[in-house]
Amino acid sequence: MEQSTATAPQPTARRILVVDDEITIAQSVAARLRAEGFTVDLAHDGPSAVAAVASAEPDLVVLDVMLPGFDGLEVCRRIQTRRPIPVLMLTARADETDQLVGLGVGADDYLTKPFSLRVLAARVHALLRRMERAADRDGATILVGDLRIDVDQRRVWRAGVEAQLTPLEFDLLARLARRPRTVLARERLLEDVWDWADAAGTRAVDSHIKALRRKLGADLIRTVRGVGYALEAR
């Protein structure tokens, strides 16, 4: 009996858009990500980055802040209005204000130049895994005091007023809301929400907590110094 030689269809490679006006850096990042099995497109200025997102519909964007045309913050704003898309932002400065602004316009994570290509690849994998988990999670409504979270529609209301959250802000809030009034360590939140643990990354947690307080109220999340955060909605 002749055996079939048909093979199962291979999954389509995830597509990453790398945006950086420094050609050497862009090509190095692209080479590393292609070695990780991704399909990679390149853009080197703000307008071409927005156009590439519209045409190629990447699964994730690696985005430098400083770009010609218009900067990475404006790119992030524009692409997030089309559909939620994970963004790993690259910045030449470690200034917290720059990072807060980037996270505030929809970036999910950031790396400060110079960075390790190995760390960048790990962050990309972690962001994509987080998005996959969010897509597969069973729909539910979480009610904590005057806070309502529709997990299926990914919408949030406090006292009847809807707040517009970025994808990562939503996931962080939902994680805290599933265990209200329980203190969750920053490292635990990094593992559960970002899917990676890195002491330096606790600043990313702090930045997103600040964004949630700004959008939903300063009394929403309690800080336990040296430990982490707890949701305290009443």
Describe this structure in words.
The protein is an alpha/beta fold and 234 residues long. 42% of the residues lie in helices and 21% in strands. It contains eight helices and twelve strands. The protein has helices spanning 23-35, 46-56, 72-82, 96-104, 117-136, 167-177, 186-194, 202-216, and strands spanning 15-19, 39-43, 60-64, 87-91, 109-112, 141-144, 147-150, 155-158, 161-163, 184-185, 221-224, 228-231. The strands form three sheets. A five-stranded parallel β-sheet has the order 2-1-3-4-5, with helices on both faces. A four-stranded antiparallel β-sheet has the order 6-7-8-9, covered by helices on one side. Helix 1 packs across helix 5 (117-136), helix 2 (46-56) runs parallel beside helix 3 and helix 6 (167-177) packs across helix 8. The protein is globular.
Please tag this protein with its features.
single chain; 12 strands; 42% helix; 8 helices; 234 residues; 4-stranded antiparallel sheet; 21% strand; disordered N terminus; alpha/beta
Please give the count of helices. 8
> Looking at the chains present, what oligomeric state does this protein adopt?
single chain
Q: What order do the SSEs take from the amino end to the carboxyl end, as H and E?
A: EHEHEHEHEHEEEEHEHHEE
What characteristic shape results from the CA principal axes? globular
Major sheet, described briefly? 5 strands, parallel
Structural class: alpha/beta
Task: State the low-pLDDT regions, or none.
Answer: 1-11
Number of strands: 12
- Percent of residues in helices: 40-55%
Main-sheet strand order equals 2-1-3-4-5
Radius of gyration: 19 Å
Strand content: 15-25%
What is the straight-line distance between the termini?
70 Å
Mean pLDDT reading: 83
